[in-house]
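sanity check both lines:
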Amino acid sequence: MWLVCIGLAIALSAQAQHAELPQVTAADTAASPTDTAVRKTTVLTRVLNYFRNSNKATDKKFDFGVLPGPHYSSTVGFGLGVVASGTYSLDRADTLLPRSNVSLYGDITSKGFLMVGLRGSNIFPHDRFRLDYRLYVYTFPTLFYGIGYENGNNDANKSDYRRLKFDWMGRFLIRVAKNTYVGPTLNFQFIRATEMAPRGEELLGGQRQTVHALTPGVSFTYDSRDFMLNAKRGWFVQLDQTFTPKELGNTYGFSTTDFTTSTYFPSWKGCTVAIELHSRLNYGDVPWCMMAEMGSGNRMRGYYEGRYRDRNIIEGQLEFRQHIKGRHGAVAWVGAAEVFPRAKDLRWSRVLPNFGIGYRWAFKPGINVRLDYGFTRNGGGLMFNINEAF
């Protein structure tokens, strides 16, 4: 659709320019439509060729591409996102060295959501060190339902507010054994809630609407995936233990254990099975805006992000990734999750279901653009993104 829009814009622009021209000779008039057609064809051809050739293998030191795309989700409404993704190698002579990756993204939506961000993984020569990083800032009007499953499941708790968030994270990993890495991590977050409805302020229970947190920690990673952005086989295990003490000037003092494990393996022809289990456990005086939240573009897709939140979460998903033909593919997934304050409060009746389907288009070798629709207990949502969900 966006290619059609570009073509129409070019055509309208050409017509406007032609209307503003002074009188010319008959010879000039005869030549003008041809020149305009050539210009239109040249621009459109370049755009089409860019996407037609974007998936071809290349020996570029830095392979980079940009792609816009429409999307919709219940959290942010209709929007237009722009994602740019690149891969590179710091040692091109080492053919076994995994390629580093970087992604830039921006978004604007009908509900006033504005976001810019950067994330990536830098792999040093001989894979001795790795640097994972994330930086983004966003602001948008959103909803707060309170803390805990019961509050999140109550539509009457829906409270408007505007959220501003800045998030920076760096994780430096040192290889200590084959596929095994250990190292420090540091995260800084600043979150501000404004224009909150009275019901929302009541549900906060006296907690502050502006919170900042400087969070150091240690990370353990085991990664045997064949390609981190779109694995076909292998394992990924990551354990982050972080600390947010008030002695560092933080608004609240707490600690967090975040654990992720996933595995990938081929099934029938053209199909990869991907399985992920994730948990986030908080201890201490954790603020409302840094609790474990359900719903994102990567997990429990389709749920309103943050509707269900509590001190802890356990969630899992199973996804089938099927190559169809050429650059086209499809996925189907099922998932489930539960938020809870303490282990003794876990209940089967509070497990929230999730399933969905998606379309994949190979933008770059190993890099897919994805369009997912997730179904949830409270509705669903359409999401546009780049790279696989996990």
Remarks:
- The chain has four helices and 18 strands.
- Residues 1-53 form one domain.
